[in-house]
Amino acid sequence: MAKSHTFLIFTNFLIAYLFILGCARDVPTNSYNTLGHGDATPIGSNFTFLCDPKRASDLVKQMTLSEKVLQLGNTNRGVPRLGLPKYEWWSEALHGVSNVGPGTFFDDLVPSSTSFPTVITSAASFNESLWKTIGQAVSTEARAMYNLGRAGLTYWSPNINVDVEGTEDFKDLNSRPLKVSSCCKHYAAYDVDNWKSIVRESYDARVAEQDMVETFLRPFEMCIKEGDVSSIMCSYNRVNGIPTCADPKLLNQTIRRDWDLHGPQYTSLGKKDICSDEHVELAREAAREGTVLLKNIDQTLPLDANNFKTLAVIGPHANATAAMIGNYAGVPCKIVTPLDALSAYGEVDYKVGCGEMKCRNDSLIFPAMQAAEKADATIIVAGIDLSIEAERGLDISFAKANKKIGAILWVGYPGEKGGLAIADVIFGKYNPGGRLHMLPMTSMPLRPVDSLGYPGRTYKFFNGSTVFPFAYGLSYTKLNYTLKSAMRSTHIKLNKFQHCYGIKYRKESHIPHCPSVRIDDMDCKEKINFQVEVKNAGDRDGSEVVVVYSKPLEGIEATHIKQVIGFQRVFVPAGGSKKVKFVLNVCNSLRVVDYNAYSVLPSGGHTIIIGDDIISFPVHVNFSS
Ligand SMILES: *[C@@H]1O[C@H](CO)[C@@H](O)[C@H](O)[C@H]1NC(C)=O
Ligand SMILES: *[C@@H]1O[C@H](CO)[C@@H](O)[C@H](O)[C@H]1NC(C)=O
Ligand SMILES: *[C@@H]1O[C@H](CO)[C@@H](O)[C@H](O)[C@H]1NC(C)=O
Ligand SMILES: *[C@@H]1O[C@H](CO)[C@@H](O)[C@H](O)[C@H]1NC(C)=O
Ligand SMILES: *[C@@H]1O[C@H](CO)[C@@H](O)[C@H](O)[C@H]1NC(C)=O
Ligand SMILES: *[C@@H]1O[C@H](CO)[C@@H](O)[C@H](O)[C@H]1NC(C)=O
Ligand SMILES: *[C@@H]1O[C@H](CO)[C@@H](O)[C@H](O)[C@H]1NC(C)=O
Predict the structure, then answer these.
(1) In this predicted structure, what is the pLDDT of residue 572?
(2) Measured from the CB, is residue 561 less than 6 Å from ligand 6?
(3) Which CATH number is 50's domain given?
């Protein structure tokens, strides 16, 4: 029987520790919280959202200076003489309720909570509905823990980095409100840390206003305007000389608007809602959906359990436990290691191969080689972990090029049921459909700087070769698209208050007579509609991520190459097809940010690209007065 070699990679990116709470307007009245294990929340205390600005301001006026100072930072001491309760603001829930912050703890009453895959893994699913479902499940467990006096109500999650280009990710949360208060962090331009001489606390990020508006602020804008966050946490760094936590422009002008926390009562949640079967199964599903198949020569995968009865399972991550849940974790309900899960499919010969992640010592290699020689298939589970992790990825070009490695799966930090997900994918119980989304972060500027030989970064600006491109990911089946219908132009009539705005074009370009209109001046009601049919021509069910990009018209100076404007993950049964409909906002989808950091809608012929240039079509923007 032919030997097949499989290679699994874990990797991760930076999720930083936190320190300062930016601002949160909706203070839970009548709520007490944990300030230490013996000093906990009155069980089932009444959390209401009676945020009365007049009352709040009156309360602040009655406080002495030292009383005010005691309310700064995350551990608020309260003011007993005014009936203001103490409160611990710091709890974490990036991928499950975590005990990293002092506001939350585990003990005999609540020993664990569901540990979902970390965000790098669930983001690779490109499935908005999955993210919302996980968010709901985490908030249910968090609220249940609060009711039991074991957790706070304010969670310093989600964490935003610019490599995942969201589009409408935050939309629609209001229809399924979270049961706790969430907080987007770290605001803003907090992308480089612990890299060369950069330390986040002293780093002064020099950021062009154009990059600020276009890339660093946009996700926070979406978090606040479209999402359900009730607070924003400022970052540690300075931006152009000003500490973000002391920048009135960033904190007061830019974000203190349109905030809205929805707060129904959830007093019935309790122990039964933590680590429920439903949540644990969701953790497994999320890990499967976030798995990315990067290489699969001659359909090495999936393995047929009838033909591959003996498995050599090699590598320091094969029996991973803590490494699976990454950082910002809590105490998981029950971890299933890759080794445990693979053992259900065949006779496993486990050899660690390397004593630690860096594999500096090859004394353990020989037994691993012997095991591989005897087995029907060899599965290497390797990569990095928190001991050597930073936000940088791992160069796996050697594995891509090596013909003996038949297949590569990327799984990130897949959470407590990651082992099951890996086995499900290897043995074809689940057909992978995740896509890569990470790009290295080594410097603040986004755009290439020719004079410095700086190539730019992210798929939006970097025009060099990559080991695997953004949104790369294979399937066990054959999926293909056809364009069913598309709107090709949009006419926007300008009123007398809306003006044409000049943007920079390269010298020889044709410049339209009304080059653009500033987004702030427009109503932005227009939509682009189109429909794509996804066909599954293979003999396995599968899911496809349809990624849609827009490309600005030729000739505009220093704009992006392309940008993600939408995506949908669809399940398509073997031999079947699914129509996927996109209705995208014209301003959001076709905007560019000019030198002066104005968001503008350029007129002329933009291009919509679907997938890896599989389909593209033009959309013409016309302005008339
Ligand atoms: C909680 O607050 C609601 C309305 O504010 C009130 O009707 C209810 O009696 C309170 N419950 C407790 C246990 O104090
Ligand atoms: C997206 O996630 C949801 C879970 O919320 C799941 O039910 C659905 O099957 C997923 N979609 C695809 C295409 O994988
Ligand atoms: C915040 O902005 C408001 C106006 O929007 C202004 O009245 C207030 O003084 C500002 N606060 C600070 C601290 O700058
Ligand atoms: C896997 O690791 C656990 C500890 O995390 C250990 O108890 C167990 O013996 C290991 N399994 C094997 C097969 O080495
Ligand atoms: C290499 O690892 C083996 C097994 O863990 C150990 O016995 C040996 O001392 C190590 N050698 C070095 C040079 O670290
Ligand atoms: C990418 O770089 C190549 C070579 O420098 C150039 O010819 C091409 O126009 C560039 N593409 C874009 C979209 O900037
Ligand atoms: C997918 O469809 C396009 C036309 O829409 C065709 O050119 C291409 O060959 C097809 N690819 C596969 C793998 O079938």
Answers:
(1) 98
(2) yes
(3) 3.20.20.300
